[in-house]
Design brief:
Shape: globular
CATH superfamily of the largest domain: Aldolase class I
Number of domains: 2
Helix content: 25-40%
Low-confidence stretches: 454-469
CATH architecture of the largest domain: Alpha-Beta Barrel
Strand order of the largest sheet: 5-8-9-10-11-12
Mean pLDDT: 91
Largest sheet: 6 strands, parallel
Radius of gyration: 23 Å
Number of strands: 14
């Protein structure tokens, strides 16, 4: 989208590197006049090192770091102590862009081209309550004013098989660990879904078909936040003849179980899987996360999706203050008993910008400041009712149970070949991660964080009997 906006500004020589698609041609990057690097928390150190390398290779290049991590930690690249701790050579970059890039990058570029010296930190965070006004200086109020993503500038674009399409931004809910609402707000902004709107979602779906895409991922934070709108979009897809061969989206269990017409339309339009933030089968944890859904609703959502032939990918978060080793094991039992198609058991990660991060930081319970491990697959804080090592080991032990070969074979025997493949693939991912993190797991404290204590070292506290065994 940023590339498409810069093309509106008259810039034509643009290339985008995404390391999941193609390796970065560093010589090409370093020869550019402007280099923009977007980063999440787990890739922040990689982004800073790449940015620093560009500045060393081409001091005249303007290097801008942005994205969700930069929005919440904008001072890091300019902090000498942070650079020394992570062995980063200065300068890391010229500017950090805070907030939504579409609102800030074009004016920053115009300032640079005019010979001005903009502040190192550009932009402001977007914060507002549901239903409240959005400051147009911080974000794009009308998403239809944005161009469609410039996929043609992505190096290795021919390897992409799934078209990424967004129909809204933001989420009306308020989960304590989620950075989405802090970045994009709780007042959801929607794109047009009318059939005759040349800037809307239907027109973009038609365009993606022309580019050769047959599958779509609707990457809204919550595709069914407004059920009637979701139904109208799917109906218009049918009327306009732009139904993909298959599509996926992120949804909530609470909406899925409310409307059978929605489920029928999802199936008719080619939905083959949904990603659901189920988070926990522990009612106390759901309340702690402010999830606003019940275990009974989770069970019903998995059941009705199966009834309509739609796979459920359940995403769970382990490590809340009310979680124990037993609740982690119970989550695996739940996934097996209810035959959830596929799952992710993610370790609670205190991402900067979230209330979870602020709370754990104030309590002195964050034990690791290496951002590369803030990927939901590493334990970086002290849980309350188990040791960090227990949280790590038990989470992956639970995933290994869910993805054991017998469950892969069982899906195949029932004719669910795609589910069998996904489970087999996940089995390999889990096994590979466990092999790669043996030394890391051994370095984790095996003690339990005592209530009222500050940050602890591995020698403090008591040894957990379960871990000792």
């Amino acid at each position: 989208m940023v590339s498409a906006l810069l093309r509106r500004e008259g810039i034509r020589d643009i290339r985008i590197y995404c390391e999941d698609i193609a390796p970065v041609d560093f010589a090409d990057v370093a020869s550019a006049d402007l280099v923009g690097i977007s980063t999440t928390t787990s890739t922040a150190l990689r982004a800073y090192r790449l940015a620093s390398a560009v500045k060393r290779a081409n001091p005249s290049a303007t290097v801008v770091v942005g994205g969700i991590h930069a929005t919440f930690m904008p001072h890091e690249p300019f902090d000498a102590e942070f650079r020394a701790r992570h062995d980063l050579e200065a300068p890391v970059c010229d500017h950090v862009l805070v907030g939504e890039a579409e609102a800030w990058l074009p004016p920053l570029l115009r300032s640079v081209e005019a010979g001005e010296r903009p502040d190192p930190i550009v932009g402001r965070r977007l914060r507002h309550e549901p239903g409240g006004p959005i400051d147009s200086s911080l974000a794009t109020q009308n998403l239809d004013d944005l161009p469609w993503p410039d996929l043609g500038s992505i190096v290795g674009r021919e390897r992409m098989r799934i078209a990424p399409i967004v129909t809204s931004r933001g989420c009306p809910f308020d989960c304590v660990f989620c950075a989405v609402i802090e970045m994009f707000g709780r007042r959801v902004r929607y794109r047009s879904i009318e059939m005759d709107d040349p800037r809307g979602v239907i027109a973009e779906l038609r365009y993606m078909r022309e580019l050769g895409f047959r599958s779509v991922f609707f990457y809204d934070d919550n595709f069914t936040a407004r059920i009637e709108r979701a139904k109208r979009l799917l109906e218009n897809m049918l009327r306009a003849g732009v139904v993909p061969d298959a599509w996926t989206a992120q949804v909530r269990a609470t909406e899925i179980i409310r409307d059978r017409d929605l489920l029928a339309l999802m199936r008719r339009t080619g939905c083959h899987m949904v990603y659901m933030g189920l988070e926990s089968v522990n009612p106390a944890t759901l309340e702690e996360f402010n999830k606003r859904q019940s275990v009974e609703q989770i069970v019903e959502a998995v059941r009705v999706l199966r009834e309509y032939g739609i796979r459920a990918h359940g995403m769970f978060v382990m490590g809340a203050d009310g979680d124990t080793v037993d609740t982690i094991r119970a989550t695996a039992d739940f996934a097996i008993r209810h035959d959830v198609s596929t799952v992710q058991f993610m370790i609670l990660t205190p991402l900067p910008g979230t209330r979870c991060y602020e709370s754990l930081h104030e309590q002195g319970r964050i034990l690791d400041d290496d951002w590369s491990r803030y990927d939901a697959h590493h334990t970086v804080f002290w849980p309350r009712l188990m040791s960090p090592r227990e949280l790590q080991v038990e989470t992956f032990r639970a995933m290994a149970r869910v993805y054991r070969y017998a469950r892969c074979a069982l899906a195949a025997l029932h004719g669910n070949l795609a589910t069998a493949f996904y489970r087999w693939y996940a089995h390999g991912l889990v096994a590979g991660h466990v092999r790669r993190t043996v030394e890391y797991v051994q370095s984790l404290p095996s003690t339990v964080w005592p209530a009222g204590a500050g940050s602890l070292g591995p020698e403090d506290g008591r040894v957990s009997g379960a871990q000792e065994a």
